[in-house]
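The passage that follows is intended for readers who have already worked through the single-chain material. We present the inputs for a multi-component assembly, then the predicted structure in tokenized form, and finally a short commentary. You are encouraged to pause after the input and sketch how you expect the pieces to fit together before reading on.
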Amino acid sequence: MNGFVYDIPTKVYFGENQLGNLGSELHRFGKRVLLTYGGGSIKRSGLYDRVMEELHKADMEVFELSGIEPNPRIESVREGVAICKEQAIDVLLAVGGGSTIDATKFMAAGACVEHDAWEFFGAGAKPIERALPIVTILTLAATGSEMDTAGVVSNFATGDKLGRLARPLLPQVSFLDPTLTYTVSRFQTAAGAADIMSHIMETYFSTDPDLYMLDCFMEGLLKTVVKYAPIAVREPENYEARANLMWTSSWAINGFIIGGKRRAWSCHPMEHELSAVYDITHGLGLAILTPRWMEYCLDDSTVDKYVQYGVNVFGIDASLDKMAIARESIRCTEEFLFEQLGLQRTFTDVGIKREDFALMAQKACRYGAIKGFKTLTPKDVEAIFEMCL
Amino acid sequence: MNGFVYDIPTKVYFGENQLGNLGSELHRFGKRVLLTYGGGSIKRSGLYDRVMEELHKADMEVFELSGIEPNPRIESVREGVAICKEQAIDVLLAVGGGSTIDATKFMAAGACVEHDAWEFFGAGAKPIERALPIVTILTLAATGSEMDTAGVVSNFATGDKLGRLARPLLPQVSFLDPTLTYTVSRFQTAAGAADIMSHIMETYFSTDPDLYMLDCFMEGLLKTVVKYAPIAVREPENYEARANLMWTSSWAINGFIIGGKRRAWSCHPMEHELSAVYDITHGLGLAILTPRWMEYCLDDSTVDKYVQYGVNVFGIDASLDKMAIARESIRCTEEFLFEQLGLQRTFTDVGIKREDFALMAQKACRYGAIKGFKTLTPKDVEAIFEMCL
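Having made your guess, compare it with the prediction:
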């Protein structure tokens, strides 16, 4: 069992009516704030006005960058970096989901260096030693970006969608108000839940030995997603469901559950290639891949983890044959994703074609084989893609 | 469901061989360190020499205060405060269990004010607005003081043992090396486990509605204690058991599990009176009280929580009658504490006498009735004490 460093100092205001604390929190970092957001839904919902009211009360000087895309582009990051530099920004305030927050993270880092922000990504990536402070107001429970050190950015010029982890990217303060997710569509709620589930499973399904207490926590998080995501899809204004999903999204990926395991993910690197080429919703791509990846990795050497998952998350009878429990756990996962959440089931459903498999599989393995739960070469990735058709 | 603020920025180095980071972490706060510890077991174990080696490598100026008692006394706190002031200490390094860390917290706070440190406690307590930075090296998994804002100090002159919570008391950095707990005696291991269990149950057994995901986490923590504490008692050098207990001890009380609930504890205020008068080990007092408190609070209005606990922690058959499950869950708790951990079962066993019940019950309710899972007046507390004989 390996040691680890736990270091997640993000302060979180959770619940309704916490925005009254926004001004004083921002003020700690300075007076010049860059407000970033996406396509304008925060204007329609009234959130924009509430935020501006708090910023004005706190006497902040506000600069804005809107229009950040889902699967955010490097061009938006560059635009933000330019504003930070030109306007001597003190603190960035991201209002939105994972895409807005991810892009904002690299604006904050890019503001502290001379080189282009795309050089933070890929082979030979430049270090991220500093970033301007980041505050977030979350409007979608999915990526966990509000409390982690990671972000993903797309470059359609090169056909790449790349992630990066760095401690300075961790938000200083995040506001998590479940009622802000009431307006999230059924589809985005479901895709967000699939993303949360995948974050947990990428860590849970591992051959590294680790702490039982963390496995118990992951099973609790998975049970929470399984219990509340279908409720949030059916009843978008169910506070209990939205609150449970929101806090679960943060803890699924903030680094606590990984303990001393290697960070060795499988479905995420595969999915990033799908959405780099097809621009599909990340959580939908993960939902299609996950059960097939589970099926592909199941053998005598891995079956025990499926049994633990099936019994503790889905309540499958522990007295059954191990392989039978494992197969039933995959069936339960499929039923949850495709029937209870109503997500599309196959690549065919979403228009992903075999002709792109070879290139996407090569790119998924750009740094060598994916050394996750099972080691996956490009050939293995192609085989999993085939199962998704 | 209430909102809450999550704010636990303690950085934790977990595992063996992490002390190489001690010097650089202390250095962030200055060069003059006050090293605090207890009765000298850290000298016998060699830990003292390892720590001093790191401090000298980092070129720190070291001052020392040893002899901090179990159930630490206000006199030790005063002594530490005096050293901090006279020597212009920059940072405090507590090496030990909860008693050493608790006392050190109030030295760090006392160093920043003019008044006596005892004025931080009791009715009309003075505010704690600042404290010197605190770093800890934990040698006993029990109180969670390494990652929380709380501490308890005894004043034998007044017969009081009082707790205090304040954000500046939160350690900046803590080193959690499970191998440092290998030398903890069977009794202290068992009593520490009972303390951890009580921290979780004080929050879990509540009538406040809160997040399902936090209940799941608490059940996972309780399962971890139930699984690993008996192993640690039997096999003191079992790394897996020691590691699970150690990380569980921190998360049992650092504030994460409380979510939006009121902090409304019951067994702790009762126990503090036992150990204030009899100086018994805190965890042992909690072990004796907890099952009787559960029995006393069980009725139709509370039974559902016992059912949830019994089914999810002890695997009791969910199809049984609710009240039967609740009673069985109390029996399982007793079996765990008194048979598997081998702790003493009654007040009679540890020499606590009826003649002190009335005064201890009055003091346990010094701020009014205990408004926990059930409201407890002095009469209720006396009745629970009677059940413990």
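Commentary: The mean pLDDT of chain B is 96. The first helix of chain B runs from residue 22 to 27. How closely did your sketch match?
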